[in-house]
Every structure is written in C-alpha cells, then in structure tokens.
Hints:
- The structure is a single chain.
- Helices cover 63% and strands 3% of the residues.
- The chain has 5 helices and 2 strands; from the N terminus they run αββαααα.
- A two-stranded antiparallel sheet has the order 1-2.
Amino acid sequence: MVSVRQSLAVVALFTAFAAPAVQASDLGTSAKTGAPTLTAQQIRDYALALGEIQTIRKAVADAPADQRPLMAAQAKTAIAAALERRGMDVISFNTISAEVEREHGLRSQVRQIMMQGVMGGMTDSQ
C-alpha cells in the first residue's frame, strides 16, 4: 500500500489547478492544539480521494517504462479530478494528510474507510 506521505508528495505536484468547493480555510481548528478539526464527511472524502490517488499512482508505477511519461501526464489530470469529485483542493488534502500522519486514531479511521470503499465499492452517492 502506498503511504499517506507518498500520496502527499504526488498531490503536492499538482498545486496549479483551481480549488473546488471545500478549501483549507473551511477546515476548523482545535482551540487546544491548533490542529484541524475534521467532520466525518471530510474524513470520508479524504480517505476515498486517497484511495483513488493510490490506485492512480499504482497504475503509473505498473505501466511499461515507455508509457510512464504519458501515464504521468494523465495521472495529473486524474488526481485533480479525484480531489474535485471529493470537494477538495490540494491544500485541504495536504492539511488533512499532515493530521492523519500525526494522529494514529485518525489514520486507523482513514484506513478503515479506504478498505470499506475497496470492499464495498463506495461511490460519491454514499
């Protein structure tokens, strides 16, 4: 499985596209820690976007060497679309990624949602 840190590195490459509905400024912060406070929906959207990004990364990595440059270009568009479908921008995705790296419980929750998405075929309507 691709780590959150590896996915974060890929997403960081795509900061040039416009932000959709939910932006980093929409994330609340904890008065005690200053860390983002995340809603269940934001966590779910993050986990499902991360799953899509990992699938995209794997497809590029598994492609024959001569096809990787084209696949990488297509991956950029696909990652941008995955984030947009989940109502996220790169900054909010990266902010949540940093919090997931810090918080073990949140990381477990994200993994569980990702597994449910894979096993149950979660879609945007769920």
